Amino acid sequence: MPGPPPAVAATRVAVRRALAGLPPGSLVLVACSGGADSLALAAAAAVEVARLGSRAGAVVVDHRLQAGSADVAERAAATCRGLGLSPVHVVPVDVPAAGPGPEARARVARYAALEAVADREHAAYLLLGHTRDDQAEQVLLGLARGSGARSLSGMPRARGRVLRPLLELGREVTREACSALGLEPWEDPHNRDTAYRRVRARRLVGDLEEQLGPGVAAGLARSADLLRDDADLLEELAGSARERLGDAPWPVTDLLALPRSLRGRVLRALLTGAGAPPGSTFAAHVAAVEALLTDWHGQGPVDLPGGVRVTRRDGRLLVDPGRPVE
After folding, report:
1. SS3 of 174, please?
2. What's the longest Cα–Cα distance across the chain?
3. The whole model's pTM is what?
4. In what order do the strands lie in the sheet with 55-62?
């Protein structure tokens, strides 16, 4: 008896590997937008999760950023139900009008909605349909930001209950899988709008493939894997260094004794612990604090997000006038 078409088999194998060890009776949720990647993932999960004696459901997030978005969400939900997924939730969200870029605001709202449903349903895993091409675009955007190894390490295959089974597959595989299964993906018009940085990165990856030959996307994704391993080790070493240094105040000589790659990570953790909002201390902020150590000429304090002020005084690093770093 012939097996499934190659693209369908590839998506199923990817899901099978990601869910190895799933306890029977668990619920696995698929985040489905109706696009080719998430539809191919939903179809694969419907088969593989059932084989493991568990249930596969879906969550469709309606960002309400386009006319007709509710209809698109309902079509995606209907397709998921037709694949045998249950339960299937359609969740409308409000994307804030202010804040970071529109992509970031939509992403924050989407992940909050997905996690809320996963919590409510006591889901064992939440599957996302990111592919190797998405990973390549993420690395390219990280290069543009110049934010170091963690930014260049892209998206992890697993973080908590969030899994990305398709990260080793190209976008063409998910499209072929949908075609083979008779599924009609929704084409998000935002994916053609060059106002979005990710769309421009996607086109640039395509241009690089044309100019340098095939394999650019795969190479960027492979680099992300290697850099993620490096970043994980450096952060582990930085955490150990932070513990050895003990509580504040921190003598400048002790901080300068750290290798630069560790010192920057220690400083970032120190600033977050002092009150800077998580994720708000960028490379420029850390560099300004680093200058208090390595380029000291009596300069004044460094003001950071969250009202944090870092000062060097009497050979020690302080936060706010006279308040030691905690």
Report:
1. helix
2. 79
3. 0.83
4. 88-92, 55-62, 27-31, 125-127, 162-163, 158-159
- Cα separation, 246 vs 136, in Å, equals 39
Sort strands 302-304 and 308-313 into parallel, antiparallel or unpaired: antiparallel
- HSE-CB for 150 with a 13 A CA cutoff: 14
Residue 146: which residues within 8 A CB-CB, separation 6 or more?
Answer: 283
Provide the CB-side half-sphere exposure for 88 (13 A, CA).
20
- Reference 281, options 254, 307, 299; nearest CA is 307
Average pLDDT value for residue range 99-104: 76
Q: Looking at the DSSP assignment, which residues form a beta bridge with residue 125? A: 28
C-alpha 8/C-alpha 39 separation (Å) is: 11
Cα(135)–Cα(171) distance, integer angstroms? 11
Q: How far is CA 154 from the centre of its chain?
A: 7
pLDDT in tens, 15-62: 999 999 999 999 999 999 999 999 999 999 999 999 999 999 999 999
